[in-house]
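Per-record layout

source: Plutella xylostella
name: Amino acid transporter transmembrane domain-containing protein
length: 463
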Amino acid sequence: MTNNYNMKEFSSTAIITENASFPSTYSINGKSKENDTEKDDYDPFSNRKLEHPNSDMRSFANLLKSSLGSGILAMPAAFKNAGTVVGIFGTIILGYICTHCVYLLVKTSQDVSKVSKVPSLGYAETLEAVFATGPQRLRKFSRGARIFIDWAMAFTILGACAVYVILLVQSVKQIVDYFDHDSSLTTTMYCLMFLVPILIFTQIKNLKYLAPFSGFANILLVLTFVICLYYICDEFPSLDSKPMSVDVGRLPLFIGTVIFAMEGIGVVLPVENTMARPQHFLGCPGVLNITMAVVILLYMIMGFLGYVKYGDASQGSITLNLPTGEVPALMAKSFIVVAIFFTYTLQFYVPMEIVWRNTRDRVALKYHNHAQAAMRAVFACLTVAAAATLPRLEQVIGLEGAFFYSFLGLIAPALMDLIFHWERGLGPYNYILVKDTMLIVFGFFVLVTGVTQSIREIVNNPG
């Protein structure tokens, strides 16, 4: 698997290999729970045939890169809806919950791979296998569950692409407005201008032509991050200048933003599936725990320092707070435009692959090329239209995190773990039932309250 991707920001992008195939798509055969005694006879790790397996260090780098994208630049805006102390502890708690849900997904995937006797499974295939080998009355829903999670993943990434368009538009608008104070260009006009290059680049169907841009985008993101830290530390205010907590009603926006920024649920299985020693992914310390500890620390530092610096003026990306008239700030804004544009094209590749593999059988072979071109154009237009309709970056980030990532990152992994163990044992005192139920309830709480508060913010502050 190539490591030339910066993908959180989605995140299932890392499921793509160098030959642009999906390595974890296997036919799942339902087995009764009586056959679970056979799972100890099958070792999925030893049956994985990888041409270029990744070391623990490279897997750590891939997972870190997938979680440390442009989302970190939104952390000051998240702290704006929590306060300094609540933001710090909230980030730690949410980071722990997200990490545990990732653990549940990977552990369930490994266990159900033994039962299904397949080397590895992707996210959607894991859900299908859990249903196919779970309680009898759920087995008929296995294929439907896989299709549902496939489409949920696709629309999650398309939502993130809409967020990228908003950041592109706001960044370019700041630059243009600085040099042309009388500019009459509206947000819709900027979206239409970006639509042309987006339509061109999203027609590229071969990943190898897109992948080289990822390394360049990564460099620009690092440089942007460094410049932002420079401005944050310059004339840094007193640490107690900002409130330790804010109105509790704004907390759902904090939770949604943090989950959006931190959640990389779609990338973990592709990383684990391509490891030379996948048994090192979980456990203590383990690749997952080390990576998430670093991610939580960096997100907490960025959110805290950025909020103390800019307070309630913190925007959806901290680059938007930088003074456009200064050269380093102008460079950061320009860097983020280029980096996010290439990130968009890479991210867009994944949902198109998901949508196409679920629809191509309904299209005659001779029309495949035309159908793919039309499909890509339609979905690209939808992301731009969404950006034009919802122009406030921090609002859309909170909405995206609450609606999509709460389901894929919190609810679905806990639900899979619960279904898998339902007839295999729920642990002493049914602790698995209690724990997973609490996670599912929390996930729905985040979804409902986050979406409600985000919509309220969008309605009350449409500008």
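summary: Residues 52-460 form a domain with the Amino acid/polyamine transporter I fold (CATH 1.20.1740.10). DSSP finds 14 helices and no strands in the chain.
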